[in-house]
Amino acid sequence: xxxxxxxxxxxxxxxxxxxxxxxxxxxIGGGSLNPFYQNTLMFIGINIILAASLHLIIGIxxxxxxGHAGFLAVGAYASAVMTMKLEMPFYAxxxxxxxxxxxxxxxxxxxxxxxxxxxxxxxxxGFGEIVRIMLLNIDYVGGASGMQVSHLTTWPWVxxxxxxxxxxxxxxxxxxxxxxxxxxREDETAADSMGINTTYYKVVAxxxxxxxxxxxxxxxx
Length: 221
Description:
Elements: H1 2-29, H2 35-60, H3 68-85, H4 90-112, H5 117-136, H6 155-174, H7 176-186, H8 188-193, H9 198-211, H10 214-220
Helix pairs in contact: 2-6, 2-9, 2-10, 3-4, 3-5, 3-10, 4-9, 4-10, 6-7, 7-9
């Protein structure tokens, strides 16, 4: 009964969000919302995506990661290169950036997620710093001056990305894999003794959490 109530509440929230989207879209189309308020709404949506993807790693799986901005940077620069350098369409930049960000999640996840607690936090912090220093020293992407990009983001793109992110995380959490991640959060030793491949599930959560922020990267451009 509780599960049914939660499902109804979730889809009610999605329905109310769609109504909110329609209202905002009408206001934008009628010129009632100036660019400042439009950008504010889009940044709110972008940060919702960031918080939700980080929740998958910290809140659901219980892994103390503080290098999430590194995945955001990978997605941002990969999508910017796709659109500005290679002149690919925006949706293609989202896909390519997502794959690049997920690959970065696997690269940092496979060797470091055998660590726990403060050691994992230090490893992920180091990853974020490596990404930052590398981007500052690559002239192809603008170096320390940053990369000049055209503003391709629209309110519908941001809203759709928020909804997809929330639905993906909710469905993952409710699945068998999600329950395995929750068991790791509650007691990793007990989960391991029950036959759950804790390293595998931590890497999966890390890769999914890294893939989702790509929309932030692309949407920020």
